[in-house]
Please model this.
Amino acid sequence: MKKSKELTGERVMKTRCCLSILAAAAVWSAAQRSEASDGIEWTYEICNGAAMVTGGKFPPNKSEVVVPSFLGGCPVRGVGRLLFCGCGTLKRVGIPESVVSIGDSSFYGCVGLMEVVLPSSVTNIGEFAFCECRGITNVVIGTNVTVIGRSAFDRCCRLAGVTIPDGVERIERCAFNGCRAMTNLVIGNGVKYIGGGAFESCDRLTSVAIPDSVEEIGDCAFEGCTAMTNLVIGKSVKHIGSDAFRDCAALTELLLPGRVKKIGMQAFMGCKSLANVEIGSGTTDIGLFAFLNCGSVRSAVLPGASLGLSVDCLTNLVISPGCRSIANSAFKYAKSLRSVSIPDSVICIGYSAFERCENLSDMAIPAGVMEIGEGAFRGCRGPKNLVIPGGVKRIGDRAFAGCESITSVVIEEGVTNVGEYAFRGCSGLRSVTIPDSVTCIGDAAFQECSGLMAIELPDHPVDIGQGAFAGCDGLTSLTIPSGMAVVGCGAFERCRGLTSLTISQGVTNIGKSAFISCRGIVQLSLPPHIAEIGELAFAGCDGLTDVTVPSGDIGKAAFESCNSLTNVVILSGVRKIGESAFHGCRKLAKATMCEGVESIGTFAFEGCESLMEIRIPTSVTDIWQYAFVGCKTLEEVNIPDGVRNVWHEAFVGCHGLKKVTVGRDVKFIAHKAFYACISLADVYYRGRSCPDACDDIYWNTPTNLVSHVRSLPVAVGLKRLFGGEMTWHGRKIVRDVGNE
Model:
């Protein structure tokens, strides 16, 4: 591909040269002068007492030419544009001391030219001046030259060496591009700028010393110098362009001075032998893929600038002394990195700075660090013992997530916020110290830290985020201190190894799913002034056998599927038993509700198939639908005075239920309230008459069921059967003298 590009460039250049010749002829013809010298008819122009050679009639096969010192009595100051362009037989040319300028393309394509000696009087070498002079083996550049023009010696493929004198300030783009025979290069101490592609594809060049005077190295300046083993970059260089040293495959060491501000994209890409890299702290911008495919880099001193994917084989890293900040994604995906030394000068570690450095285990956070960004060390192995200095106010989200080798975390006093997912999945973590300064532990901050065995929480209000300690299976003992009023949603869910839980008296709110599936908890003592037990708070706590709830609302499914729970006492401070509160507690045998409970929610005791005794207080006003569905062993229910409504299917499927007493305040019994109570024999109504009810309240109950009431007034729903008996909703109804 590169060869075809070169050929295309050749054709374009030759076309341009031909057009330039025609244009030049049109301009010069009016002022042309001529004079014979050494058998050659020279044409020239005179301006301000100086002659510019513009052309000549050269004899066929002329191999040696000497440009005259004077023409028209005036000193020759310039070799004009295209003067010898395409003179394939020309081998040597003499240029007098009077000449100060070599014009653009003046020797372009002189393929037989073997040597060029430029006198000290020359100050400027024009663009393409000696381009494609493929026979040149040696060039002597005068000491007064200040600019070597673009492509001046481009593709001089036999040029073995060049010394650029101290007077030269600029080496323009592609000046020595494709000089494939070049083995020796000396760049003078006055050069300030090396243009793009200036020495590109000089693939025999082994050593380059860039002097202290140089400030900028252009794009592709030394790209493809595949034999280069030694490179010295001067201390004044501030900018290294994109691809500047790309594919310098033999280069083994790179030492960049502290003044380099920017390294362009792919600048050292493909330097396959590069083993040691040192970049000063002054570098703030390192382009994407700058060191990609540098497969031998093992050790480096680098700034905190962004490197993207450019350090893929780095194993040991030292951040340059004096560096203040490690940039976002600076060393992301450096999968071979094992060791990082961060200097005390660093105050900020950017987001994803070392993310997915999956072998990084040797590192420490300096005491002066004030910011650890999101995902800064995510997916690293991590050190065994990690200390977060107190100057870090907030540990970024996912900062250490998945660091499986961390066993101990000490968060020093001063840190106030542990970000979301900050230590999630640190499966090797055994202990964590959280100081009193912490006020917020983010969602899932320590989630799935399955090895965490102990934690001491601050004794003051701390916002514990959702799932902050979820899945910490190694946690066996936990105390919620009195200063922490709220236990956050899902804070300790799935802590399956938790056997001892102490909730201190100051705690008022247990959030949704706070302890769901904590199967090891056997005993639970709730503080007396609890205001709310959230939805699913203790659901699936299979080890729990006995619960006393002193106060507050019991949320939806709060104790759902506590399969070992046998006894529940709900004290007078509780107002509401939420939907499915004890749903599926299959071993629950006794439930005692003290005065104060006002509502038994939908599905509250559904599926409590071992429930034999239930005490409902007079403070209850509603028994909601499906409240006791499937309580198969419940034999007797006393619906006390105070209850006004028994809603539909409240006692569906209570197969063992034999006797029901309905309080005098019950006004309405909804449809199928006692559906499929196949053992029900007697229903006693303590009121003077039966309450309003749907026709189907006794569906699928025994036909010999008797309703007992104090009096039998004529009312809707009463029917007289043959034999003098009265029925009520399809079942016999009798006057119960015992209720007088």
Summary: Helices lie at 2-28.
